[in-house]
Structures are given as structure tokens and as C-alpha cells.
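name: query_chain
kind: protein
chains: 1
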Amino acid sequence: MNRLTVEETNLLSIYIGEDRQELTDNLTAALPYMDGDMKEIAKRALSKVAAMTEAEYGELALYADRKSTRLNSSHLHVS
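structure:
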């Protein structure tokens, strides 16, 4: 797996959804509104998320609403 940078992880946290598809849809919908540098970070993050296995995606730790969020393909755990 390609490791996510801090910038990519932070961006994914902004567009987090209930599952990988919603995250991808949210971030893709925002692309036209991003400037050049941010758009490149977003495209790189989307590429890395697409290349992840379900197990890798399930272990991805993203932060939303200041709570640690672990995603997997079936449900959302908030701690």
C-alpha cells in the first residue's frame, strides 16, 4: 500500500463518508472547486484509496468531528 501523506489524510478526513464509495464520491465532487495544489493532493489521495484492499481501507484511521474514526466495508466505528 502507498502510505498516505499527512495532507492526504487530512483531506480524506474532510470528505469522509459512511464507506469508501461515499468518500470517493464526496472528494471527486469537490475537485472542480479546488486550486491546483489541492487538486493534485486530492487526485493522489483518490488514487491511493482506489489501490487499497478492503482490509487496508478498513484499517485506515480518519478523523471527523474530533473523534477517531475507523472505517470498514460494513459499518462505522467511532471511539
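note: Residues 36-51 form the longest helix (16 residues).
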